[in-house]
Amino acid sequence: MKRLSIAAVVAAALLTLLPTTAAADVPYPDPQPITGQQIIHDPTVARLRSGGYVAYSTGGVIGARTSEDRVHWTDAGNAFAEPPTWWYEYNPTGDPWAPDISYRAGRYWLYYAVSSWGSNHSAIGVATSFSGLPGTWTDHGKVFTSERTDSWNAIDPAIIRADGRLWMSFGSYWTGIRMVELDPGTGKAIAGAPVHHLATRPDAPYAVEGPYIVKHGRHYYLFASYDACCAGVNSTYKIKVGRATSVTGPYVDSTGKPLLEGGGDLLLEGHGRYVGTGGASVFRDRGTDRLAYHYYDAEDDGTPKLGLNVLHWTRNGWPTVL
Q: Which pLDDT score, from 0 to 100, does residue 159 have?
């Protein structure tokens, strides 16, 4: 027992020093065990100021789950009773994708995308709510759009405040991950604001999407999903990360390779029954950063389910998953 305790202490100490590139040498952790309604895709999770948790996702009219303890999850319907009419400009079923929930100025803000598979005729919209609960959202229309003539795709939004300004990262395939500044009053893109380029891959189809940025210490960390989503047990989704001292980049991995040149430290990939980990976001929960994502359950016909893990920060400032 004594030898095991010493080994455990040594392993823990090494974990605080290793960059994420070393994570491939150790097994990836399984997600936190959860019960109840586990099915989800592209989750965004928040601990509500009123207590409890809410998760929104792709599917339905922005599908909703709630939990009192972050363990047992209940199907809570949808953010909206009906799709706003303008959604049908972007797909015939008014199907929204990849929401992002945040809180500022006394309200919750829900960003989401509407598009169709394989097209960058896309739009990001926004809604607000004082409680953050499903059925309480007021839609405010389009935030930012892309057309077939653009070199980016306006889906997968994620919001971050930095140095008193409001920013939205977004992007999927095409030329990868982009960023635009928002008006903090309206929550919409500032007219004429430059579109910054944060990450891409060297070869078509530039399979990187679903950005999420958080600040830790003096760095901003860009998490993104790489490779193929949405193919059940054949999905190859994985989560990579890079960091920058400015929210607009340049982002690099722990070896110094720019994310604009295909860099990125591997944070989490499929293992065992947990296939195609991706669609990730980060939420703060009582002083702890937690990673939310979906995986395809190889022991349940590839059903997409909610993954939750603690996001641990090493001594040299890189994230690992516990």
A: 98
Distance CA 272, CA 223 (A): 22
Q: Cα–Cα distance between 52 and 46 in angstroms, integer?
A: 9
> How many CB atoms within 10 Å of residue 60?
17
- Residue-number span of the structural domain to which 210 is assigned: 2-321
Residue 313: per-residue pLDDT: 97
Whether the per-residue pLDDT at 269 is higher than 70: the answer is yes
What pLDDT shows up at residue 253?
Answer: 98
For the question of residue 147 being annotated catalytic, the response is no
**pLDDT surpassing 80 at residue 145:** yes
The span from the CA of 110 to the CA of 134, in Å, is 11
pLDDT for the residue numbered 26: 54
Q: Are strands 208-216 and 196-199 parallel, antiparallel or unpaired?
A: unpaired
The amino acid present at 265, given as its one-letter code, is: D
- Mean pLDDT over the full length of the chain: 92
Say if CB 249 and CB 290 are below 8 A apart.
no
Q: Residue 205: is its pLDDT beyond 50?
A: yes
Radius of gyration of the chain from its Cα atoms, rounded to whole angstroms: 19
Query: Considering 95, 181, 209, 269, which one is annotated as catalytic?
Result: 209
Number of structural domains, the chain? 1
Is 150 marked active-site? no
132: left (phi over 0), alpha (psi -120 to 50) or beta: left
Under 8 Å between Cβ of 296 and 290: no
CATH number at residue 255: 2.115.10.20
Residues 6+ apart with CB under 8 A from 75: 37, 64, 65
Beta bridge mates, 224: 240
